[in-house]
Structure formats: structure tokens, C-alpha cells
Amino acid sequence: MAGGLGYQPGGIRGLCELIDKHAEAIEFDLLSRGWRLADVGSARFSWRDLLVLVRGFQADPTSRTARAIHGEYWPVTDQLLATVIDLLQVGNWQRAGKKSAPKPKRLPRPWEKPKGRQLGSNPIPVSKFNDWWESKRKKKRR
Question: What is the pTM of this model?
Fold first, then answer.
């Protein structure tokens, strides 16, 4: 329990850091099993017990703790169902034969970054922003 796992600190220190970052999720998982964070350190619920439970939560992809740390979890069946829906939408779009109809969008997957709109091409350093802002205001006045 003294050493960390990879880049993470081990033991109670690592556990405390994990609780600081994901307290609500860990508390939810503990409450669903009849424990509270306030019970830690008692004769009935040691720090070791908490460590074992939290490691178990991390290994269970459906737990709130695992979802808070690793992101949303989709079982294989849900991933396959999303793929089937995407293919059905594309097939229906193709069979409709309307050239002006927009191509259907994929169902969003939680692990994929949404494609956002990018404004501008080159970021301006904060130190030069005021000069840039004033130059744009002067052009508008003309």
C-alpha cells in the first residue's frame, strides 16, 4: 500500500486525492452499499476497507466513480445498437433519393469530442489583445 500505481501516489494520500477530485461519485457508490465517508477510520470501516471499495468502484464500468474518472461507459450492445441506427438512417437517406436532403448525422458517442465551431485562425496572445481590439474599433469608426 506504500507505493503508487504508475504515476499515481499510493495508499491513503492517493485515496485522499481521489476523494478530493471525485467525492460526490465515491460518496454515491458508498451510500449505495450502506457506507458513508464519515465512517472511515472507525473500527467497522478502516482506510483499507475504503481503498478496497474504491478500487472496486474503479474496476466496475457502471459505477459512478468509474464514470467520473474514465468518462461515460457504453456496453458493447449499446455501441452495436448505435451503429445499427446510424446505418439505418444512412440507408433510408440513400433510398429517399433527394439530392437536397442533408446526410444524417451519427449518434454522438460519449468518448468522441464534438466538432465545435472554430472562430478565427490564429490565437492572439493576451499581451497583444488590447492593441488588436483597439485597431478593430478604429476601423469600424471610419
Answer: 0.52
